[in-house]
Write a structure and sequence with these properties.
The protein is mostly beta strands. The chain contains two helices and eleven strands. It binds copper (II) ion.
């Protein structure tokens, strides 16, 4: 019996590798792309599951001056990023930011993001009962060429079409 319990504990640890959690809010697979020369902003994607209904209301990091929550919307065939105040997280539902049209925008990066590094982030959540939950996350920095889930859109809005 004891052996089985130990094994479960070990599997549990393996499963949460790359995941960061606090008070029933779990953040998985946070990542950003390495920055190009001269680029001082970066988009971060991740998946979030909250046991109780909650919302992501903000984030901060020592690596940049501020972080905004952005949504991407189509406007006359152009992709536009717009700041939003929060992202709703229905209870028990896995929300993939990128696929839902959201991302975190790191503004004023103090140093370029290099592949293989991690970016420390503190995410702020508000539960339905107004309790505040903070989750410390490390976002993985992937190669500049890594394709984002919303890559099509992300690329388009950097190009001007004539
Ligand atoms: Cu953005």
């Amino acid at each position: 019996m004891k052996k089985i319990i130990k094994l479960c504990g070990l599997l549990g640890l393996l499963l949460v590798n790359g995941a960061f959690a606090a008070d029933g809010v779990r953040v998985e697979g946070a990542w950003s792309r390495a920055t190009a020369p001269g680029q001082n902003v970066a988009m971060v994607d991740m998946s979030i599951v909250s046991d109780k209904s909650a919302s992501l209301v903000g984030a901060s990091s020592p690596a940049c001056s501020s972080i905004e929550i952005h949504s991407m919307t189509h406007d006359n065939g152009m992709m536009k990023m717009r700041q939003v105040q929060s992202v709703e997280l229905p209870a028990g539902e896995r929300v993939a930011l990128g696929k839902s049209g959201y991302h975190l925008m790191l503004l004023g990066l103090k140093q370029p993001l290099a592949q293989g590094e991690t970016v420390p982030l503190t995410l702020n959540f508000k539960l339905a009962d107004k309790a505040v939950v903070k989750v410390e996350v490390k976002a993985e920095v992937r190669p500049l060429t890594e394709v984002a889930p919303n890559a099509d859109e992300g690329m388009h809005h950097h190009h001007m079409h004539h």
